[in-house]
């Protein structure tokens, strides 16, 4: 069974870049079944999909965040990553990595525990 | 984007009673060619990630008790917990995965005992 674990700074200053990594265990990031996604959850906006990436590098981003988001895959480390630039307080949220099977538009079947990122000076 | 609207925002149900949560989509999420509704339901408990409990509107995931059931088609969907147990307390979300560009979630329904 696939397991996911988010890691990264819990505090980011306004205007800086939020960087998170999701480490995959119990399976290979090269598995052509899975799409690897990022979501976030804040009290104000609920659950929001940020984007997804396939092992080949194909990316799918939420249009509302697309100008600030970059996702990448590191096959050698079995990890995928999220960068969100020019953050403000509204980007404060719990960030989750999660998988979908078959396509990025699918139910999220495996989730990491989530990591709280606070944007504050 | 398709907007998913849940009702009620919260409900309190006695142990052993039925809980019903509704989810309405802003457009149909029934794909005519395969007759599938592209909606999922999740359960979330404090400090935990959401847990997928139902996909394709009515297919229970492995390990999910059969007191959980999903129904509906087109734009109107329902999650029913037939006999509420203490472990069922939490927040429930619906999600559509029908169309690009983005999967979207309902705002959540809090179930209390």
Write up what this structure looks like.
The complex is a heterodimer of chains A (121) and B (113). Chain A is globular, with a radius of gyration of 13 Å. Helix content of chain A is 0%, strand content 55%. Chain A contains no helices and eleven strands. Chain B has 113 residues and is an all-beta fold. In chain B, 0% of the residues lie in helices and 50% in strands. Chain B has no helices and 13 strands. Chain B has strands spanning 4-7, 10-12, 19-25, 30-31, 36-37, 39-44, 51-55, 59-60, 68-73, 76-81, 90-96, 104-105, 109-112. In chain B, a hairpin with a 3-residue loop joins strand 7 (51-55) and strand 8. The radius of gyration of chain B is 13 Å and the shape is globular. The mean pLDDT of chain B is 96. The A-B interface holds A 46-49, 60-63, 96, 98, 100, 104-109, 111-114 and B 38, 40, 42, 48-52, 55, 61, 93, 95, 97-108.
SSE order of chain A in H/E notation?
Answer: EEEEEEEEEEE
Oligomeric category: heterodimer
* Rg calc of chain B: 13 Å
Radius of gyration of chain A: 13 Å
Structural class of chain A: mainly beta
Instruction: Name the biggest interface.
Output: A-B, 21 and 24 residues
What is the overall pLDDT average of chain B?
Answer: 96
The end-to-end span of chain B amounts to 34 Å
Helix/strand structural class of chain B: mainly beta
Which stretches of chain B are poorly predicted, pLDDT < 50 over at least 5 residues? none
Overall number of strands of chain A = 11
The major beta sheet of chain B can be summarized as: 7 strands, mixed
Shape of chain B: globular
Shape descriptor of chain A reads globular
The unreliable regions of chain A are none
Count of separate DSSP helical elements of chain B: 0
What letter string, H or E per element, gives the SSE order of chain B? EEEEEEEEEEEEE
Helix content of chain B: under 10%
Strand content of chain A: over 45%
In helices, the fraction of residues of chain A equals under 10%
Helix count of chain A?
0
């Amino acid at each position: 069974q696939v397991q996911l674990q988010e890691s990264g700074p819990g505090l980011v200053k306004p205007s800086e870049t939020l960087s998170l990594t999701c480490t995959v265990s119990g399976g290979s990031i090269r598995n052509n079944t899975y799409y690897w996604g990022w979501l976030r959850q804040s009290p104000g906006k609920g659950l929001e999909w940020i984007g997804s990436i396939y092992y080949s590098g194909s990316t799918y981003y939420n249009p509302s965040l697309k100008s600030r988001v970059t996702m990448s895959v590191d096959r050698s480390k079995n990890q995928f990553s999220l960068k969100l630039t020019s953050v403000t307080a509204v980007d404060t949220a719990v960030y989750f990595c999660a998988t979908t099977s078959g396509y990025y538009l699918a139910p999220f079947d495996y989730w990491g525990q989530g990591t709280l990122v606070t944007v504050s000076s | 984007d398709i907007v998913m609207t849940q009702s009620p925002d919260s409900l309190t149900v006695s142990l052993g009673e039925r809980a019903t949560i509704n989810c309405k989509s802003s457009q149909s999420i029934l794909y005519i060619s395969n007759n599938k509704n592209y909606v999922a339901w999740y359960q979330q408990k404090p400090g935990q990630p959401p847990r997928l409990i139902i996909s394709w509107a009515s297919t229970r995931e492995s390990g999910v008790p059969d007191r959980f059931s999903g129904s509906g088609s087109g734009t109107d969907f329902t999650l029913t917990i037939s006999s509420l147990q203490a472990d069922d307390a939490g927040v429930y979300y619906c999600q559509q995965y029908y169309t690009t560009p983005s999967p979207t979630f309902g705002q959540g329904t809090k179930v209390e005992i």
